[in-house]
Design goal:
heterodimer; A: 2 domains
Chain lengths: 473, 317
């Protein structure tokens, strides 16, 4: 059941109606049942995995809360980490490690048949695993009291708006909200639905249309010249942004309709002026998770400069692997890590040069945005390419074959117009929250905007039910 | 704090719903008119032409059958409704829409292995959505579109949804309009045969289980309905460069299947092949492996026009 499918809308409106009709004490049961139904609509058997993950984290946290012994606490944490990461490894990384090992051995002329598991990747496994991990670690650190209600905790892990592609919520932010009684508030529901439709708009009107050109070039990279590869890469940058942020908007909007606040996951990332800032704006729930549960425990910036850079690179490589079991994601993470380290290393030099020349911050801002965007795009090549060799082929041919360009006139013109519209909307956002302003604007204007978005989806939307890219992570 | 929903809110919601329905109907009315004015997209120009010979098919129809050449030789008005990427399912739907308006004397359907084999037919059914503006006029179009998933019947509750993608079609029409002459679009490239590579499956022979049953059924339905309406139906396989480069024998078996199918349903079949038409051993007549260029299309259209005269003259039947 995809967020951009008709089935989801029927499901969502039925759940919402029932939710507000039911007395508060029964609502968690409805939401939990709905969340498990939502998850099982992909592959019913995999509900066992999310249940195991939930139960382990729940029991380990309870155990941690009940004991004063540090060793026992550590044991509970370890059990939770082993079970949760074990499930994640088995279903997501086992075949990748096995294949890589076989290829490595083959490289030194040792032929070994490494085992392979015939399993499908469970949808959203990386998201809910990280969510349960953060909970167990927070309880272990004493930052959070263990949740005693197993149903509410299970709901925290499986809450359907953010179950399959985030945002990766922290227990400290979401758990408490399940205890609060929610009322049907028209303003809030309208705001939520605005976000839902804006998310669908970004997904089907922008991302899926851009995908037509991107796929035709990236799936046949060797037949395309530099300009086509460059254009397809720029298009992909916006495709993945609209695809993923579109999903996040739908998730946040759907939760808002029900009365819940999920964390912001994107903040106009392509307006970042350096790579560090990009990661403060892109997939915020993941980047803050990596910071709090990986980078800081590794030592963060507390153990000297060279260790800081190493910690950044390790964190980003693991962040890359989190996205998928493929060398393309490893390289993607590695390149981002190196860029972050270089950015941190050269920051004082760049600042002093600007100071000496007398350049104001605002004067260099457009250039810095442009450079950052292009560096990020360069990394997207590794993220999108079908294989590592394809990625290096593309990187190596970005400047070849100019000015021959493969132009699918309609797809390219439409893509450029869609990106221009998106950037315009994002620029407006810098002057204040558009949704907030829309809520305060005249009814006619508000409804005009609703109709515009709705009929753009009807007239421009790609309606073949393509799935969200981040579902596969 | 309690649930905050007032009568005013409910009235507002109903009013918004009414506005959306009205806008939907308004957009539908406006787009219907606009759609009728498009020359390269949709079927209005074909229907308005009242042509005696109508050519159906995909890009190989669109770029191979020069309507004016056929018209000059046969003396019968001709229109080419073949379009890039649109195969047998589109032909079935478009033909049904046409027959609801009038029945041409001769219907030519460009058909070949690619039209009816499994792998290449799957997506073609999705592309029938190009005929969505005719969903209320043709039960055939409606059935094909709605058969693609249960959600479709809800989507088409919106009248404007029939024109999903229309803004792109308008752009296409503006940029391509001058290139189409009575539905025919010439290709001006010249093929370089040094790039030719045999397909991976070349030499494996024709396997009947590879046939796409849906496409074969739709092709038969098209022939049947055209015949019932009194049209002469001629299936044609136009030349391919690949067909003359070593794997013609594979295709011959498929041609025999099509010929048998045509025979069973009262249609004629012509495969324009190298041994009968050696002109097409010349790569300069091709734009790529699958398509003739302007010069090749002219040669082919002259040949096909002569065949049409022969096939449609009463004494020859």
């Amino acid at each position: 059941m995809f967020f951009n499918s008709f089935e989801f809308f029927i499901f969502f409106f039925s759940v919402t109606a029932a939710y507000f009709v039911l007395p508060h004490r029964f609502r968690w049961v409805l939401l939990l049942g709905a969340s498990y139904y939502f998850y099982m609509s992909w592959k019913a058997e995999y509900v066992i995995l999310i249940m195991t993950s939930t139960l382990t984290a729940y029991l380990c946290a309870l155990g941690t809360g009940r004991t004063e012994s540090k060793n026992k606490k550590r044991c509970y944490l370890l059990v939770s980490l082993i079970v949760n990461l074990g499930i994640l490894f088995t279903f997501k990384y086992f075949n990748f490690v096995s294949d890589s090992l076989r290829e490595m051995l083959a490289g030194i002329s040792i032929q070994v048949n490494t085992p392979a598991l015939r399993v499908l990747l469970p949808v959203g496994i990386s998201f809910y695993t990280f969510q349960t991990l953060s909970y167990t670690i927070d309880v272990y650190r004493g930052k959070l009291k263990p949740e005693k209600h197993p149903g509410i905790f299970a709901l925290y892990v499986s809450f359907f708006p953010q179950l399959v592609a985030g945002p990766i919520e922290r227990a400290s932010h979401l758990l408490g909200q399940f205890y609060e009684e929610k009322y049907f508030d028209v303003r809030r529901v309208c705001h939520g639905m605005e976000l839902v439709f804006w998310g669908i708009f970004k997904k089907v009107v922008i991302a899926d249309r851009l995908a037509i050109y991107v796929d035709s070039v990236y799936n046949n990279a060797a037949n395309h010249s530099g300009p086509s590869l460059v254009l397809a890469t720029y298009f992909f940058a916006f495709q993945i942004y609209c695809d993923f942020s579109g999903y996040s908007d739908i998730a946040i909007g759907a939760a808002k309709v029900l009365g819940f606040d999920l964390m912001k996951n994107f903040n106009r990332p392509y307006f970042a002026t350096n790579v560090t800032e990009f990661w403060h704006r892109w997939h915020i729930s993941l980047s803050t998770w990596l910071r709090d549960y990986l980078y800081i425990p590794l030592g963060g910036n507390r153990k000297g400069k060279s260790r800081t850079y190493l910690n950044i690179i390790i964190t980003m490589v693991l962040g890359g692997i989190w996205h998928g079991a493929s060398w393309t994601f490893v390289i993607w993470g590695l390149v981002h890590g190196v860029m972050l380290a270089v950015s941190k290393l050269t920051m004082p030099i760049r600042e002093s040069i600007c100071k000496k020349i007398g350049l104001k911050e605002w004067a260099t801002r457009p250039l810095r945005i442009f450079i950052t965007f292009n560096l990020v795009c360069l990394c997207w090549i590794f993220f999108r390419a079908n294989t590592v060799s394809d990625a290096f082929y593309i990187v190596g041919h970005l400047f070849s074959g100019w000015p021959n360009i493969f132009i699918d006139q309609i797809a390219v013109s439409y893509g450029i117009a869609a990106i221009a519209f998106l950037l315009f909307a994002e620029l407006l956002q810098t002057r204040g929250d558009i949704a907030e302003k829309l809520q305060q604007s005249h009814l006619a204007l508000r409804w005009g905007v609703y109709c515009l978005i709705l009929f753009s989806i009807v007239l421009f939307g790609v309606t073949d039910g393509s799935q969200f890219i981040y579902f596969q992570f | 704090m309690k649930h905050r929903i007032s009568k005013k809110d409910i009235l507002k919601l109903l009013l918004l719903a009414a506005i959306i329905v009205a806008a939907d109907r308004g957009l539908f009315a406006g787009f219907s008119r606009l759609f009728d004015k498009l020359e390269t997209v949709g079927l209005s120009e074909m229907v308005n032409s009242q042509a005696e010979i109508v050519v159906f098919g995909s890009s190989r129809a669109c770029h191979h059958y020069e309507s004016e050449v056929i018209e000059n030789i046969t003396g019968k008005s001709t229109y080419n409704i073949g379009r890039d990427g649109l195969g047998v399912p589109y032909t079935r739907g478009a033909c049904d829409v046409l027959l609801k308006s009038y029945c041409p004397k001769t219907i030519v359907i460009e058909v070949g292995p690619k039209s009816i084999m499994t792998r290449s037919c799957g997506n073609q059914l999705k592309r029938v959505s190009r005929l969505a503006p005719y969903i209320d006029q043709s039960d055939v179009v409606k059935e094909m579109i709605l058969s693609q998933g249960p959600q479709h019947k809800y989507r088409y509750m919106s009248k404007a949804f029939r024109f999903n993608g229309l803004p792109m079609y308008v752009f296409y029409d503006i940029t391509k309009r001058d290139k189409f002459v009575k539905g025919y679009e010439a290709l001006d490239k010249v093929y370089d045969p040094t790039y030719f590579r045999l397909p991976v499956n070349a030499g494996k022979g024709f396997v009947q289980s590879d046939l796409n049953e849906d496409c074969v059924r739709l092709l038969i339905d098209t022939i049947r309905s055209a015949k019932e309406n009194g049209a002469e139906v001629i299936l044609v396989t136009s030349p391919r460069w690949g067909g003359f480069a070593g794997y013609e024998s594979d295709e011959r078996e498929c041609f025999a299947f099509i010929e048998q199918l045509a025979k069973e349903h009262g249609a004629s079949y012509i495969a324009v092949m190298q041994e009968d038409y050696p002109h097409f051993a010349d790569a300069s007549l091709f734009a790529d492996v699958d398509h003739l260029n302007r010069q090749g299309a002219r040669v082919f259209s002259e040949i096909i026009a002569d065949i049409l005269i022969e096939k449609t003259t009463p004494s020859s039947r």
